[in-house]
Amino acid sequence: MKPQAECLRCILTTRLREIEYSSLSPEEKIVLAKRIMSKLVNDFSLDSTELTRLASDLFQLTVTAPGVLDYYRLVKTQSMRRALALRDAHREHARYLDDYRRLHYLLKVSALGNLIDYGVMDHNFNEEIDPGIAENVEIAIDDSVKFYELVRKGGLKIMFLLDNAGEAVYDSLLVEYLRGKGNTTIGVVKDEPGFQNDVTLNDVIEVGLDKVFDEIVTPGCRSICSSIHLDKVSKDFKSLLNSVDLIIAKGMAHYEYLTDIDIGKPVLHIFIPKCDPISRSLGSVTYRGKPVVYLRFPESKL
Predict the structure, then answer these.
(1) pLDDT at 277
(2) What percent of the residues of the chain are helix, what percent strand, and what percent coil, each to the nearest 5?
(3) Do 150 and 158 meet the contact criterion of CB atoms below 8 Å apart?
(4) Start and end of every Damage-control phosphatase ARMT1-like metal-binding domain (predicted)?
(5) Do 12 and 55 form a contact (C-beta atoms < 8 A)?
(6) How far is CA 167 from CA 16, 130, 174, 302, in A?
(7) What is the mean pLDDT of the chain?
(8) CA-CA distance, 210 to 223, in Å (whole number)?
(9) Spatial separation of the C-alpha atoms in residues 105 and 93, rounded to whole Å
(10) What is the spatial distance between Cα 58 and Cα 56, in angstroms, rounded to a whole number?
(11) Is 9 a domain residue?
(12) Cis peptide upstream of residue 131 (ω within 30 degrees of 0)
């Protein structure tokens, strides 16, 4: 996705806020902030910048500051605990719904989990997502019927690109449904140290989410990657990607990156647009803050 003018301020605001959270001295914070701003000014272009790569490169600089990763570890732990406290309520609510409505409800829960994002300027959210909120939320783009027809008969090998840590707990309910239909699920988490509050292998093991999937993998990304940058992931991951039938991609970063390439697979994007540029790319600024369940089919095979 090509950047827009608002993206410059959003990226800079997020990175400067992280520097403020660090334990650097005031003088060291200024030095690092200047490095970040210099790289951003040099690398940002409305014509050629790929947003997820630029954000990843700048975060790579930010995490050199002591305290930044500690801040995100605390954020992730708290988010997962809050979500775990509510997971059974969602599971119980879904149990009484018919098959399609159950899937539709779990897609909404998964999308609402994407609200838990500490890396977007001017984004405020409530992590307490209860069944009443999920049942009544309005979906901006809803391809759940098409998705249901794909997965209901089972037999698919599905790659699930996870995003934020608390969000991943809510995603686990959707994974349970998909496996219950006889599909195989492969969860993809970020390589350590992760990107912002995105979930890593250590995070999912900590709360037992690794047991929800048939398999959990990392992309083997060289340096920090906010998405599955194909020029940086491992050969094994590329091979695995080629072997799957369907991809579920959570969050805005995966949407920004994957919609610019033809990955050769159907991709279900589940997220909430948290800014006007993303909303406009989907068709309307009125989509901002509303769940998106958007199924894209490939133009070709990888």
Answers:
(1) 93
(2) 50, 10, 35
(3) no
(4) 5-283
(5) no
(6) 24, 13, 11, 29
(7) 93
(8) 23
(9) 9
(10) 5
(11) no
(12) no
Kindly tell me if the per-residue pLDDT of 219 is higher than 60. Answer: yes
Question: Domain for residue 8, yes or no?
Answer: no
Rg (CA), the chain: 19
C-alpha distance across the termini of the chain, in Å: 20
Phi, psi of 54 (to 5 degrees): -65, -45
Note the pLDDT of residue 148.
Answer: 98
Look up the domain containing 179 and give its range: 68-296
Residue labelled with tokens 């989990």: 113
Q: Residues 227-245: what's their mean pLDDT?
A: 97
Question: How does DSSP classify residue 200?
Answer: B
What is the count of structural domains for the chain? Answer: 1
Count Cβ atoms below 10 Å from residue 141 Cβ, excluding itself.
17
CB neighbour burial string for 169-187, b if at least 16 within 10 angstroms, e if fewer: bbbbbbbebbbeeebbbbb
- Domain for residue 52, yes or no? no
Taking CA atoms, 19 is separated from 23, 27, 36, 62, 284, in Å, by 8, 12, 10, 7, 34
CATH of the domain at 248: 3.40.50.10880
Supply the pTM of this predicted model: 0.95
Mean pLDDT, range 46-69, rounded to an integer: 93
Strand partners, 159: 186, 247
DSSP-assigned letter for residue 138? P
- Judge whether 206 lies within some domain: yes
* Torsions phi, psi for 213 (to 5 deg): -95, 160
Alpha carbon distance 290, 276 (integer Å): 12
Determine the Cα–Cα distance for residues 191 and 219; give it in Å rounded to an integer: 7
Nearest alpha carbon to residue 275 among 258, 292, 287, 291: 287
pLDDT digits (tens, 9 = 90+) for 73-113: 999 999 999 999 999 999 999 999 999 999 999 999 999 99
In contact, 12 and 40? CB cutoff 8 Å: yes
Tokens of 224: 């920090």
Separation in Å, CA 238 to CA 8, 231, 264: 31, 10, 12
